[in-house]
Amino acid sequence: MDRLLSVGGLLRFLNEAARRGNMNPATASASASAVRRVFAVLDTEQAKDLRNVDLDEVLKRFATLNQNIGAASINTYRSRIEKAISYYQDYQHNPNGWHANRKARAQVNRSIRAKSPTSNRSDSRIASRSREKEMSGITTTFPLREDVLITISGLPWNLKMVEAKRLAAFIQTLSQEFSPNENPTSQ
User: Fold this and answer.
1) How many secondary structure helices (H) and strands (E) does the chain include?
2) How buried is 17 (Cβ within 10 angstroms: 0-12 exposed, 13-18 middle, 19+ buried)?
3) pLDDT tens readout for residues 29-43
4) Which residues sit opposite 184 in a β-bridge?
5) Is 153 in a helix, a strand, or coil?
6) d(Cα 149, Cα 46) in Å, to the nearest integer?
7) Distance between CA atoms of 107 and 127, rounded to whole angstroms?
8) Which among 17, 22, 28, 148 has a CA at the least distance from the CA of 83?
9) Going by C-beta distance under 8 Å and a sequence separation of 6 or more, which residues neighbour residue 152?
10) Is the Cβ–Cβ distance between 8 and 32 less than 8 Å?
11) Which of 130, 38, 139 is nearest to 86 (CA)?
């Protein structure tokens, strides 16, 4: 694995973590999808070292190029990318003992940029947003299969039916059997 924080290294890490059972394969796949889609706006040099990339700016560029994607989806991409980067950085420090389930969820608030006096403001802003997110919203569990219990968190307390249907359609896209030519809500 790369010591740099590159897009390619991050994607290889997510693939290997899922393959070796150190990370839920669906989580790794969703994270890899977010990394691929969002960081596609970067040029080759930027993609080689993400430590100097401002995720807020990248997400703004991504949103500008993909105006059909809503703010909630952009926030989901942000969360997945921040978590993936946090996992990758922790893996780089402890490759033999790392496992996604052993991660403290509060560590998601790390900054992408290398530590510097200017990034401390960004770190505290991200940490503040993370704490706000954790304190708000519904968290629930759902028995997906007999041996699989999933947790869904961060749903708004006043979830609307249109939002629930949109979420259900999104979850269908995560299926291995999903076909983009089919209408996800008709199945």
Assistant:
1) 7, 2
2) buried
3) 999 999 999 999 998
4) none
5) strand
6) 39
7) 9
8) 28
9) 138, 139, 140, 141, 142
10) no
11) 130
How many Å from the N-terminal Cα to the C-terminal Cα in the chain? Answer: 40
Question: What's the pLDDT tens digit per position in 77-110?
Answer: 999 999 999 999 888 888 888 888 654 333 443 4
* Closest to 129 in 3D by CA, of 59, 79, 72, 69: 79
Q: What confidence score (pLDDT) does residue 176 get?
A: 80
Number of residues in the chain: 187
Tokens of 146: 């007999």
The pTM of this model reads 0.54
Q: Which tokens is 98 given? A: 């790392």
Q: Which amino acid type is present at position 107?
A: Q
Q: CB atoms < 10 A from the CB of 47, how many?
A: 16
Here the tokens at position 122 are 């960004």
